[in-house]
Specification:
There is one protein chain. The protein has 193 residues and is α+β, with helices and mostly antiparallel strands. The protein has two domains: 71 residues, no CATH class; 113 residues, Periplasmic binding protein-like II (D-Maltodextrin-Binding Protein, domain 2). It has five helices and nine strands; from the N terminus they run ββββαβαβααβαββ. The strands form two sheets. It has a five-stranded mixed sheet with strand order 7-6-8-5-9. It starts with a strand and ends with a strand.
Length: 193
């Protein structure tokens, strides 16, 4: 039986757990090792709780603190991207919000807007806070209402930023968002004022 104690927020993949397995104390990645391979990808630091508290716990706590700090510091600016065929040189904050709240469905040239969103993660959270002025949960709830009422089509959900760039580049009228450090040669970054 595994007993897990979270060090950091469990919704980010770069955080880890402390696991007590039998009499060993181990550090494991966020994803728990499979029961078929309990000796999988984790490191045992101490033979018991007392030894762990004296030797390994300071290292684990410092590592957890560093992950929290670097996770916050490493978060760059979120930028909006569009398909290269979209004839727009910049957008204002309200237009982006209207698009992602399903209040605007067509570009000024009449082309249908295809909304693309990340499934989750820090870039998705930052986008929701900055451009939608809400949380990812509020954004998800809003789109459920739009879909249920028949007022619009669901956004395309992608799992990572590389998929976001590829989808936006390949589909006319698409709009998405990425971290500014993500390669985006195939799509067009649009400044938001």
């Amino acid at each position: 039986m595994y007993q897990l104690a979270t060090l950091g927020r469990s919704d980010h993949s770069n955080f880890f757990f402390v696991m007590q397995e039998r009499s060993r104390i181990c550090v494991v990645p966020r994803r728990r090792p499979s029961t078929s391979d309990p000796g999988g990808s984790y490191v045992c630091l101490a033979a018991n709780k007392r030894a762990f508290a004296k030797t390994a716990m300071p290292v684990v706590m410092m590592s957890a603190w560093l992950l929290l700090v670097t996770g916050v510091i490493a978060t760059a600016e979120v930028v909006v991207i569009v398909n290269p065929d979209v004839e727009v040189s910049s957008l204002d904050q309200q237009t982006v919000e209207d698009i992602y709240r399903a209040h605007k469905g067509k570009w000024d040239d009449g082309q249908k807007i295809r909304v693309v969103m990340l499934k989750n993660g820090p870039v998705h959270e930052n986008f929701a806070k900055k451009f939608i002025r809400g949380t990812p949960e509020q954004l998800k709830s809003l789109w459920k209402k739009v879909i249920f009422s028949g007022a619009g089509m669901p956004p395309k959900i992608v799992h990572d930023e590389a998929m976001m760039v590829s989808y936006v580049a390949a589909n006319k009228g698409s709009i998405g968002y990425i971290d500014s450090s993500t390669p985006h040669d195939m799509s067009k970054v649009v400044p938001v004022q």
